[in-house]
Amino acid sequence: MIYQPAEDSELLEEEVKKYAKGKRVLDMSRSADLEHDQESEQSGGNMRILDMGSGSGILAEGALKAGAKEVLCVDIDDESVGELRKKGLNAVKSDLFSNVAGVFDLIIFNPPYLPSDKREDKESALATSGGKRGDEIILRFLEKADKYLTKNGIILLLVSSLTPFKRIEKLLEEKKMKHRKIAEKKLFMEGLEVWEIIK
């Protein structure tokens, strides 16, 4: 099943476009020296981007239109990978990083983030359920993501108020990765946030 773009995809897409254009990354602690701040400025045209869980390809297409040099789309679903390739996008079937090689300046991920619901069919749950609690896929992703980032690499991650944050924030702290909320949107049943995570 191909996950169709909704409010979460659109919120993340707006931020992806900014970064793909070369948006300046500010040090969140505000204590870095000028040299480090200059190192954090990426050139959009030279960016190599990984679109994890690409689905319909909305984020990859947005990044390329904004000027990204290269985007690799990854999805676990055969149908999604086939459709991405039909669109002319570079796509591989992979369970998170299992078939991914190389390093990237930017990794974007709109993960399944809802707690599992026994009433939901298995196919639909692949696109929406992040595990029993809702944070399991994000945790699996973050366990390895830093190994696929360049020195000043960035992750843009979408999370929901329905996603438990405690274990995610603890893992980021253990990996000495900083994060901050850069965008948000309130919906009827939940709030959506885009996090910038810096290696």
3D structure, described in words:
The protein is an alpha/beta fold. It has one domain: Rossmann fold (3-Layer(aba) Sandwich), CATH 3.40.50.150. It is 32% helix and 28% strand. It is built from seven helices and nine strands; from the N terminus they run ααβαβαβββαβαβαββ. The protein has helices at residues 7-20, 34-39, 58-66, 78-86, 122-128, 136-145, 166-174; strands spanning 48-52, 70-75, 90-93, 104-109, 114-115, 129-131, 149-160, 178-186, 191-198. The protein has a seven-stranded mixed sheet, with helices on one face. Strands 5-6 form a two-stranded parallel ribbon. α4 (78-86) links the parallel β2 (70-75) and β3 (90-93). α1 runs parallel beside α3 and α6 (136-145) runs parallel beside α7 (166-174). It is globular and about 40 Å long. The model is unreliable at 24-43 and 124-131 (pLDDT under 50).
Q: Count the E strands.
A: 9
Rg over CA atoms, rounded to whole Å, is 16 Å
How many H/I helical runs?
A: 7
Shape: globular
Structural class, by secondary structure, is alpha/beta
Q: Strand order within the widest sheet? A: 3-2-1-4-7-9-8
Order of helix and strand elements from N to C terminus: HHEHEHEEEHEHEHEE
Mean pLDDT: 81
CATH fold category name: Rossmann fold
Which keywords apply here?
alpha/beta, 32% helix, globular, 199 residues, Rossmann fold, single chain
Summarize the structure.
With 199 residues, the protein is of the alpha/beta class. The protein is built from 7 helices and 9 strands. It has one domain (7-198): Vaccinia Virus protein VP39 (Rossmann fold, 3-Layer(aba) Sandwich), CATH 3.40.50.
